[in-house]
Amino acid sequence: MTTGYRPEVIQRAFVDFIGSRIHPFWSLTTPKLRLVARYPLSDDLIALRFETNGAFRQQSFKETESWQGGQYLDLRVLIDGVYHQRSYSIVGLANQPLWWSDDTNTKAAKSRRHTVTIAIKPQGLISNYLAKQMPMASVVDTSVPLGGFTLAKTSLDNKRLNPLLFIAGGSGITPMLGLITQALEIGHPVTLLHYSRSELSQLEHQWQQLGDVHSTFNYHLIRTDTPATYLAGERYLSADSLTALNLPLADTIIFACGSQTLLAGLYKAVAEISLLEGIQLRDNIIVENFGSALPDFEGDSDQIDRQPQTEAHTVYLRARQRQFSSNTTLLLAAESADLRLAYGCRQGICQLCRCNKVSGVVKNIQTGKLSSDGYESIQTCINIAMTDVVLDV
Predict the structure, then answer these.
(1) How big is the chain by its Cα radius of gyration, in Å?
(2) Which of 72, 35, 49, 245 is nearest to 149 (CA)?
(3) In this predicted model, what pLDDT tens digit does every residue of 319-343 receive, in sequence order?
(4) pLDDT tens digits for 212-242?
(5) Burial of 203 by CB count in 10 Å (0-12 exposed, 13-18 middle, 19+ buried)?
(6) Positive or negative torsion for Cα 124, 128, 130, 131
(7) Residue 234's beta-bridge partner residues?
(8) CA–CA separation, 77 vs 370, rounded Å?
(9) Per DSSP, what are the bridge partners of residue 38?
(10) How far apart are CA 112 and CA 57, in angstroms?
(11) Using an 8 Å Cβ cutoff, are 25 and 139 in contact?
(12) In this structure, what DSSP letter does residue 143 have?
């Protein structure tokens, strides 16, 4: 009987193994990047350009025309014999020249179609190594472009292009570089509000260029130590600074990325702005964040960094036959009980902490949504137990 099954005479994994011994950049199945250039974006932000291998290009362009602005890559970096994984924002779009590049010849333009650039703030072991120490032509394993911080979530009204407001704090600008360019090309009116303590000369040059090309683009660069740059006289984000932008806020989609302080300030500000009855400005916010600011935060600024807490519940790890009490995120509670769970970014981005929940209700501290009581996949770094919970760990 014919089944249609055709076994591989030579396994792809075997070919990958042999190929990696000949050249570390070769792979049929594993996306890889090779470092080709570094560029300063600001005093404390560096862009890294990588050449992509065939597996990266094949998998990244498999289902969509290219990656989207706002997405990121998970890089797997070997340092002193230990692999580390971190997530970094992609700068720019596929097949698009970057504003700091002076390459004008045909060969260079052609090579840009096979590169990807990420932005890094050199703090911490992995970021510092990538930004300052890793030799040129070094090869790292990577994911394909990931993440939902994209323009796919902008549709409040399918019949028109909504105004977009991008609010960034410090290096939170990185996922917005490609997003803003893409939004302007589509036709969205765009406003940028960027708070930073460092010089932004390269980035400001980019915004000036976009402003010259697109009349619908406005930007405000706020140096928190320079009162002359403040919006509505406010050093930090506030209801007054938002209303000073003169945007139709009820129709405006807000993309926000930054620290817990920035995000908590944003939710506090929109809560103070009155719109038409039945319209909540907070429903228009799309967040990519470095921490876990609660959307329903109502405290003072000195409470912002406090870990979210609830009534204590019991969490049972079925595979280990261990249990612990939890009134904060599942990951933090497990670590407090001397139980080690898998994790990566601890921010809800990289997915390394994801596991299966067998039963019980949890709450996502980034979205405020409650889970069902049944079996489903959750992330331990951004969920807290609302009842007793059983995890398949």
Answers:
(1) 23
(2) 72
(3) 899 999 998 899 989 988 999 898 8
(4) 999 999 999 998 888 999 999 998 899 999 9
(5) buried
(6) positive
(7) 231
(8) 35
(9) 48
(10) 13
(11) yes
(12) -
Residues pairing with 87 in the sheet: 74
The first and second tokens of residue 96, run together, are: 């698009």
User: For the chain, what is the total number of helices (H) and then of strands (E)?
Assistant: 9, 18
Distance CA 90, CA 359 (A): 37
SS3 40: strand
Question: Which two tokens mark 370?
Answer: 């409650």
288 backbone φψ class: left, alpha, beta (φ>0; ψ -120 to 50) = beta
In 3D, which of 280, 289, 241, 285 has the Cα closest to residue 262?
A: 289
CA gap 24, 143 in Å, rounded: 16
Strand order in the sheet with 389-391: 322-326, 313-317, 389-391, 354-359, 376-379
Type of residue found at 322: R
Q: How far apart are CA 61 and CA 253, in angstroms?
A: 28
Q: Collect contacts of 108-116 with beta carbons under 8 A, ≥24 apart.
A: 111/51, 114/51, 114/52, 114/57, 115/36, 115/49, 115/50, 115/51, 115/52, 116/33, 116/49, 116/50, 116/52, 116/56, 116/67, 116/73, 116/90
Q: Are 342 and 330 in contact (CB under 8 A)?
A: no
* Alpha helices for 67-190 (secondary structure H): 106-111, 125-128, 176-186
